[in-house]
Amino acid sequence: MMKLRYLSMVIALSTGLVHAAVPVYEGSQSGSYNSNQGYRDANGASAQGGAQAPLSAQGQLFMQLQQMQQEISTLRGLVEEQAYEIKQLKQQGLERYQELDQRFNSMETAAPVRESAADSASSEPADPAKEKLFYDAAYDLVKQRDFAKAQQAFSAFLRKYPRSQYAANAQYWLGEVNLSQGNLEQAASSFEKVTLDWPEHSKTPDSLYKLGDVQRQMGNREEAKLLWQRVVSQYANSSAAKLAERELRNN
C-alpha cells in the first residue's frame, strides 16, 4: 500500500514537471510543440531548421528528478530488506534466549547437585547435538556480556552434562564469568577444576594462567608466580605460556 501511494506521488509530480518543461513562445507565430521534436510551425517545419531543440532548464531538472527518484527507490528497497533481516535476527535471538531461560527455570526447581563429575544423579545420556546447542547458547551470553546469565547457563550445563565433550570448555568459561563479576574464589575453583579433571585439555594452560591471575588479585603473589612458572615449563608452546612469561617479568 505504501509503495502504491509513493508511485502515485511520483506520477503526479512527474506530470506536473512535464507541463512545466514545455517552453512558452511569445508572439503571433502559430505552431505546435512536440516533446521529442521541439517546436514546429504551422507548416510542420522545426523552429531550429529540423534539428532537435535542446532541453530547457525545466526539462533538465525533470530528468535529474527522475534519476533521483530511481536512486531513492533503490535505496528504499535496500533499507526495507535490511530492516526485515534485522527483525528476523532479533526474533531468532529472542526465541533462543527464551528457550534457554525456560531450561534455567526448570533446573532451578530441581534439588541442588554437587558439581563432582562422579556424581551424575542429574546428568543425561550423551547427546552431542543437544549438548552443543546448550553450550553455544551459554557461550552466546558471554559474547553478549550477560555474565550473570552465563554463569547460570554454564553451571546448569555442567550439572546436566558433566561428562560432555564440552564440559572442560564450560568449566573454563564458568571461571571466566566468575572472574568478570569479581567472584575470585569461585573463579579459582573453576580454573583449578579444569587443571585437575582435564589435564590434557587445550584449556588447561589457559586455566593455569588464569588461576595465577586470580591468586595475584587475591594477594597471593608467590602462588601466582609458581602457577605461571608451571605454565611456562609444562606448556611452553602455548599462548598462555607467553602471557605467563610476561607476568613473570613484570611481577
Automatic annotation (TrEMBL):
Establish whether keyword Cell division is in the entry. Answer: yes
Q: Where in the cell is it found?
A: Periplasm
Query: Superkingdom of this entry's organism?
Result: Bacteria
tRNA processing is among the record's keywords: no
Q: Which UniProt keywords apply?
A: Cell cycle, Cell division, Periplasm, Signal, TPR repeat
Q: What is its main location?
A: periplasm
- Give start and end residues of every TPR repeat: 168-201
In the record, biological process GO terms are: FtsZ-dependent cytokinesis; protein trimerization
Please explain the role this protein plays, according to its UniProt record.
Mediates coordination of peptidoglycan synthesis and outer membrane constriction during cell division.
The UniProt family comment states: Belongs to the CpoB family.
Its recorded name reads: Cell division coordinator CpoB
